[in-house]
Amino acid sequence: MRNILLIAAVALASVASFTTPSQAGSYSYGYQPHCFVKKVKSYDYYGNLIIRHVRVCR
Questions:
Q1: Could you tell me the pTM of the whole model?
Q2: Per-residue pLDDT of the chain (58 residues; tens, 9 = 90+)
Q3: CA distance 28 to 17
Q4: CA pair distance 22, 19, nearest whole angstrom
Q5: I want to staple 27 with a disulfide (CB 3.0 to 4.6 A). Which of 8, 31, 46, 48 is the partner?
């Protein structure tokens, strides 16, 4: 019985994690956010430069 409840809880959590981001993309009244790509520079443990491209929406 405990295994069934555990499996059901894991399944519910996985379904909820997929539905939340899908709702974040819907905008009402024709509003679209302004998005741009930002370069973020950082260094790893060995001192190598790492450049990541991050999408920022406002």
A1: 0.40
A2: 666 766 776 666 666 666 555 555 565 677 777 899 999 999 999 999 999 999 998 8
A3: 22
A4: 5
A5: 31
